[in-house]
Specification:
By secondary structure, the chain is mainly β. The chain has one helix spanning 10-15, and strands spanning 19-24, 32-40, 43-51, 59-63, 78-82, 85-89, 96-98, 114-115, 117-120, 123-127. A hairpin with a 6-residue loop joins strand 6 (85-89) and strand 7 (96-98). It is globular.
Length: 128
């Protein structure tokens, strides 16, 4: 980058594993997921972001890739509750993933990556 270039180097920003804005509260649908791109130290990642009002934590971010099918579909899953824990059911093979820790309910050897996410005013921020 030249000394006159004012653009931000995304790879430098992401490598710090810092909080970054992702979207706004208005972009979310209660009890549903949306997919988003996230800059991480490892490179871009697809994230499934879930807004579950009324739970202790209202926002959850998981890997968008279904480990059983390889398809990027987790954000399209059905949000529900199993044994008092918020989960999302994959829309393809119906495995349930805990929104809190990404663990697959049916196969505890499989876990989706999770990210810290929070509201900051009306913006959604995620730690990449």
């Amino acid at each position: 980058m030249s000394s006159t270039d004012t653009s931000t180097d995304i790879s430098t920003t992401a490598s710090a594993n810092t909080w970054q804005p992702l979207c706004t509260r208005a972009d979310l649908v209660a009890f549903s997921g949306v997919a988003a791109w996230l800059d991480t130290p490892e490179g871009p990642a697809q994230v499934a972001l879930f807004y579950v009002p009324g739970h202790e934590h209202e926002l959850y971010a998981l890997d968008h890739r279904d480990p059983f099918s390889g398809a990027y579909v987790i954000a399209r899953g059905i949000v529900g509750d199993l044994q008092g824990k918020p989960v999302v059911a994959s829309p393809l093979y119906k495995q349930h993933f805990c929104l809190e820790n990404g663990l697959c309910v049916e196969d505890d050897t499989i876990r989706l990556r999770t990210w810290q996410v929070r509201f900051q005013g009306e913006e959604v921020w995620i730690k990449g």
